[in-house]
Hints:
By secondary structure, the protein is α/β, with parallel strands linked by helices. 42% of the residues lie in helices and 12% in strands. Strands 4-3-5-8-9-10 form a six-stranded mixed β-sheet, with helices on both faces. Strands 1-2 form a two-stranded antiparallel sheet.
Amino acid sequence: MALSPVSAEVIHQVEESLDEDEKEMMLFLCRDVTENLAPPNVRDLLDTLSERGQLSSAALSELLYRVRRFDLLKRILKTDKAAVEEYLCRNPHLVSDYRVLLMEIGENLDQSDVSSLIFLTRDYTGRGKVAKDKSFLDLVIELEKLNLIASDQLNLLEKCLKNIHRIDLKTKIQKYTQSGQEARSNMNSLQASLPKLSVKEQFYNSRLQNGLSKEPRSVEHRGIQRNPVKTSIQESGAFLPPHIHEESYRMQSKPLGICLIIDCIGNDTEYLQETFTSLGYRVQPFLFPRSHEIPQIIRRFACMTQHQDYDSFVCVLVSRGGFQSMMGTDDLHSGFSLDCVKNMFTGDTCPSLRGKPKLFFIQNYESLGSHLEDSSLEVDGPAIKNVDSKPLHARPCTTHPEADIFWSLCTADVSHLEKSSSSSSVYLQKLSQQLKQDRKRPLVDLHVELMDKVYAWNSGVSSKKKYNLSLQHTLRKKLILSHT
């Protein structure tokens, strides 16, 4: 990968192509590199790095890779995700693992999680120090200024994540801490066996120990933390040290599980049914349900005891809807909350699926202004209480109730349907192709490439024809949708 300097024209192209969230992430990732000078914007950041000789094409590729703009890697820098990953495995990193970890945690927190964290840290930051509408990264920066958080000081964040029941993210911190301890132990052993190093060599090794240039790590995503990306893609690129064994979910049952398809539009069921049947699922399609029938169908499947014999569950939803809601064919009310769908399959409400992956693929067509709809939709608490299922008491389980969920949500303007009543979802079509072609690859990695393909589609169409795809997940292991 090229180590040549980056031109002002390239910097301008990159800065223009990033959205505000991506710019915030890039500024955060480079806080250590710029020695906390905190450039006011991405253009100034990249220009400062360029003046210091720190912004090669490889370094800029790493930054775009970290914020998962793989389309810009191809279009502007003429490289791709695989080439960047290979480079990172062989060379020191511009961005510390500590910054990547915190960015991934932020992607997997929703606004209610962030609000809770801001409230929990008020005893340390002072009341009103961090505004309620600030992001997780804003909170981290404030905690860093107060010396309450650092690459080797994450206890406060762990405690707060535990208090909001995000054990999955607390575990990520513990893995990071463990890898850092092992790296320092290995480095100390190595230095004890070597002759005295020069000042320059000592500085390089101190950077290794401080997380600025650690050993290469294998990519899981973030994917998308995706395990990236997403988060998301949430998920939503988590980086695990090679010496930490990455478990995989058991996917051996026949069938692998039930695949519930609820299609209120009717354009995608046929090929989706073929795809998930070929993967080994027992597909149960429901076409054109009315609004009051949707929660009844979902509740019935959440309560099925057959899940205990299967290794996973899939739910595909295709609907018109509002912000975070879906409607049936009658369009009689504001919709059924998507959060309620997810809550029906948590470990508490659907114990027969506890510890097993639960996958949701959602295509929702929204009307303009739908984000201003009535906010009285069912929310997390009531949704759990409304599920008529009784907990199993076979044996205690320490798995967090919201673990093992993969939540892929794609929204598009409802005009897609008005112009062509038989138009299939680009997102679901490309998802189906990916699942057929790459079934032996980890699902999170597969979804990263899916997002790349959706980005490519969006680059050639008007704003109303674009698809907005996000990923949030709490998967604890690698997931491959294949028996073999």
